[in-house]
Amino acid sequence: MTLRLFNTLTGQIEPLEPADGKALRMYACGPTVYDYGHIGNFRTFLQVDVLRRTLKLLGTTLRHVMNITDVDDKIIRNAAEAGVPIGEYTKKYVDAFFEDLEALRVERPEQIARATEHIEQMVALIEKLAAAGAAYKTEDGSWYFRLRSFPEYGKLSKKDLSGMEDGARVDVDEYEKDSARDFALWKAAKPGETSWETAIGRGRPGWHIECSAMAMEYLGESFDLHAGGEDLMFPHHENEIAQSESVTHKTFARHWMHVRFLLVDGRKMSKSEGNFYTLRDLLLKGYKASAIRLALISVPYGNQLNFTFDSLTESTKAIERLRTFRGRMSEGKFLAGENPELQEAAKNARTEFFKALENDLNTAEARAPIFELVRAANTAMDQDQFFAADRDAILPVLQDFDAVFDVLEDRDAEATRRALDWAREAGRMDDVAPELLAAQSLTDEQIVALVEERTAAKKARNFARADQIRNELAEKGVILEDSKDGVKWKRK
Length: 492
Ligand SMILES: [Zn+2]
Prior knowledge:
Layout: E1 4-7, E2 12-15, E3 23-28, H1 39-57, E4 61-68, H2 73-82, H3 86-103, E5 111-114, H4 119-131, E6 135-137, E7 143-145, E8 169-170, E9 182-188, E10 196-198, E11 201-205, H5 207-219, E12 223-229, H6 233-248, E13 253-259, E14 262-264, E15 267-268, H7 279-284, H8 289-297, E16 305-307, H9 309-331, H10 340-358, H11 363-382, H12 388-405, H13 412-426, H14 434-440, H15 444-459, H16 463-475, E17 478-483, E18 486-491
Parallel strand pairs: 3-4, 3-12, 4-5, 8-9, 12-13, 14-16
Antiparallel strand pairs: 1-2, 6-7, 7-9, 9-11, 10-11, 14-15, 17-18
Helix pairs in contact: 1-12, 2-3, 4-5, 4-6, 5-6, 8-9, 10-11, 10-12, 11-12, 15-16
Bound molecules: zinc ion.
């Protein structure tokens, strides 16, 4: 089974396979660590995670590299304002980024590459570009890429760059203008700024050169796939291609995947619109990490996602249904035998699930048959038409689903607890939802003790006390379920 993925470079859906027949070599642009990640950032990382997990499920070995941009204009400016070295300034955000990825259950790439640890490779690449006539030095000691030297510029984003001004330069790391400019490869040191003493002068790298240098360092001159958010397509990825191919004369990445933006309540997310959310904002509002994960991956990467709080509520309920069903399956006692309809349904759900993922990672179509199967199986259980062989047929289907979606295991309390710890340190307790605070005011041990006290009270026919405990727990977001095997509790 082979994944077929849209390739921005060719404009076609194409099979994605390792060129060397061994491991799929992929590079995905990572974060610039000057702030906490917002849900738009995390949608991209989550969709790359879906890609990773699908490839693994299909039996592909991966060599996945992600960079950390830990030096750029904003970082230098913010660190200077805070009066600390850039390494000290970025550490907090690097740690926060990985903590957030863990909360969202995003797998770690095989290789993490930090820009500040690869200055040597970037300098070497700029030297090669200079030797090839594709880079020049300006009077202040900065280096620029000469766009005129790379006629293929624009082949990824398909922008019409015919009005390109020869020799016009841009030195900021990010620019959105549709016009192409010679861009900075290396910026000469300004007084007081972080810089490195190198063979091409004292200074610091531009943003674009780091991805070219580090991708080639770990994946070779030509590799299988490059991924990133759609906002990086131009100019960042276009510049990466220009810098790399001018030196190697080989295709830098054969396949390009771009994750589309998300909207929040139908509008572009922005701080001024008041619809800007970091992952931590949502956790403090009481939403579960698993629900955020599911909501951000359920719309395929190539489609714009309109993120709403309703979609989070829907995801919370969907996950609850899945977890309850799996609990029913693993704890229930079922008679030997099978229900032919369920056997057929399990087989079909699995086929449809794989078909949808293999077809350009269509996560929406992949999850639908799984929920359909759960519905049918729940109905069969209610009617005593569910047998041991049905459980054996359905469990592996759920496992395959969860190998990609990863929401079945309940690890949400941990992510929420960490967010609360952070809120305490960061002075953000005012942003914590009251229900969440109440629920967190009890430890697991305290809950267990109360549950036991309630059981004892019931045995002693002290129903008033038993009800009192149930209500007290409910107020703090703890739900009790009485079953014939005893009392189970969970946090809402
Ligand atoms: Zn990049």
